[in-house]
Write a structure and sequence with these properties.
Distance between the termini: 38 Å
Helix content: 25-40%
Shape: globular
Number of domains: 2
Radius of gyration: 17 Å
Strand order of the largest sheet: 4-5-6-1-7-8-10-9
Number of helices: 8
Strand content: 15-25%
Order of helices and strands: EHEEHEEEHEHHEHHEEH
Largest sheet: 8 strands, antiparallel
């Protein structure tokens, strides 16, 4: 099992590789992170990796930006260049994935770690789930396999290419971040959200960072599952289900 953090960021935003490396080094002090990475057989310095990816990598090809090189205690930051026409709502976006083994934990809480990542990347939106729950979330977007999620009562979500903007989240998770644009476009009310979830706070950029349950959300926990379903019901924009 592992924790997955997904951030969807504007494509023209500078990629803060070194600040993120500093953050990961501080949050995971027992791990040494690589200073270079191998991209298609070419050794690339970390600070040059984002430009290299933008220029050479095709749609949806995962390229590790930062890794500690330890599969057992893995912490990896990967970048995807999602480009037109396969991008997000017809736009180019950065899809940033951080995968952390459950055998490692950030020095701060997961929520605080998420908040620091958001401050560096300034995404449209972001989520954190465990790998099991994220597997069900992926099924909600798939034409084949959705029936497994449907049996649990989870709704079918539309492909992100059909969304009305990259600010629309493609899912709901244990920890969620919605930018100011997302909050405004989805007409999210802070006080209403506060009553629905375990915790919520406004971030420095006027976005909302909220945690559905106190402990890691589990699909196997009936109360957690019902809360997740109710949140999808409350926010039909998520997954592009609300047509405007």
């Amino acid at each position: 099992m592992s924790k997955l953090v997904k951030l969807f960021c504007p494509f023209n935003t500078p990629v803060p590789v070194q600040p993120v490396l500093d953050l990961l080094t501080r949050q995971f002090p027992g791990d040494a992170f690589d200073k270079t990475i191998d991209i298609e057989g070419e050794l690339v310095l970390l600070e040059d990796a984002p430009l290299f990816i933008k220029d050479t990598i095709h749609h949806n090809e995962r390229i590790p930006l930062i890794t500690n090189g330890n599969e057992r205690l893995m912490v990896e930051l990967s970048g995807f260049a999602l480009k037109k026409p396969f991008g997000y709502a017809g736009e180019n976006v950065w899809y940033i994935l951080i995968e952390m083994s459950d055998e490692v934990q950030p020095a701060a809480s997961y929520l605080s770690f998420m908040e620091e990542l958001i401050a560096l990347w300034r995404p449209y939106w972001a989520v954190m789930n465990d790998s099991n729950t994220e597997g069900y979330a992926a099924l909600q977007l798939q034409p084949v396999g959705f029936e497994i999620a449907a049996k649990l009562g989870l709704p079918r979500l539309k492909p992100p290419a059909k969304y009305r903007g990259p600010f629309i989240p493609s899912g709901m998770a244990w920890i969620n971040y919605w930018s100011k644009t997302t909050v405004e476009q989805m007409r999210v009310n802070y006080n209403t959200l506060k009553e629905q979830v375990f915790s919520v706070k406004q971030t420095a950029d006027a976005g909302l960072l909220f945690q559905l349950t106190e402990n890691v959300l589990s699909i196997e926990n009936r109360e957690d599952l019902q809360l997740l379903i109710s949140m999808f019901d409350a926010y039909p924009d998520v997954g592009g289900r609300l047509i405007q």
